[in-house]
Write a structure and sequence with these properties.
Elements (H helix, E strand, L loop, with lengths): L9 H17 L5 H13 L3 H6 L10 H11 L11 E7 L2 E4 L4 E2 L2 E7 L2 E5 L4 E2 L3 E9 L2 E6 L4 E9 L2 E4 L19 E9 L2 E6 L3 H16 L1
Parallel strand pairs: 1-4, 2-5, 3-6, 4-7, 5-8, 7-11, 8-12, 9-11, 10-12
Length: 221
């Protein structure tokens, strides 16, 4: 006997509804305006029945090709393999910018003196389930961009500086589409002295869903 809809985990229902919305938009069954409106409702709803009502008029269901595409495009870039255990980045009266599909070591020591540094994990390739960033900034600015589906735990101290942590709250529950057993955890520790350290999401989960849906639509058109 099927489980009563009210008794199903809401994040499982939400994931299935979002998948069906993307599938139907990708095949041209609903407009972009309707897709984005329903996607907003699906991401904010706390009622299983309300979630299901968003797709009750849609006929197309998710197939294996969709599942494979989603796994490739929406998952965290996690690829077990050999990477260096530790990397040290030191900036003195200079700047550094690490971005793109770079391989993330297990530990990063980031030191900034009268400098600026950006660490962008948006497209980075993770090989370790846990990554630790040890940072020290003196009269400097540091920005760390993290994917929304990566766990972030920070323990930072500030002396006459500023720390702005806009990473997703650990108390916010994530759907299986946003996290799995290969989701890395980034630990950020260190001190900011007359400096700023910003931790933020470069691209939200909604933006990733829309980008994936647009890619599916282009592929099918």
């Amino acid at each position: 006997m099927p489980v009563n809809i009210e008794d199903r985990p809401i994040e499982n229902v939400r994931e299935a509804v979002i998948d069906q919305l993307i599938m139907n938009y990708g095949h041209g069954e609903i407009s972009l305006e309707a897709f984005e409106r329903r996607l907003d409702q699906a991401m904010s709803s706390t009622c299983n029945k309300e979630l299901l009502s968003l797709v009750e008029d849609l006929d197309l269901n998710v197939d294996q090709d969709y599942v494979d595409s989603k796994k490739q495009d929406m998952g965290t870039n996690y690829m077990p393999g050999h990477t260096q255990a530790q990397e040290t980045i030191t900036n003195i009266l200079s700047s550094s910018n690490r971005q793109g599909p770079w391989k993330v070591p297990k530990e990063i020591n980031l030191k900034n003196y009268l400098s600026s540094a950006d660490l962008d994990f948006t497209e980075a390739v993770f090989s370790h389930p846990e990554v630790r960033i040890n940072t020290f900034s003196l009269f400097s600015a540091c920005t760390i961009y993290v994917p929304e589906n990566v766990r972030v735990i920070s323990n930072l101290s500030c002396i006459a500086g500023r720390i702005d942590n806009r990473s997703p709250s650990q108390s916010h529950s994530r759907s299986p589409s946003q996290t799995n057993n290969k989701t890395p955890t980034i630990y950020i520790e260190g001190t900011s002295v007359f400096s700023s350290i910003n931790i933020e999401v470069k691209r939200t989960m909604k933006e990733r869903f829309v980008a994936f849906a647009d890619g599916l639509k282009r592929m099918l058109s």
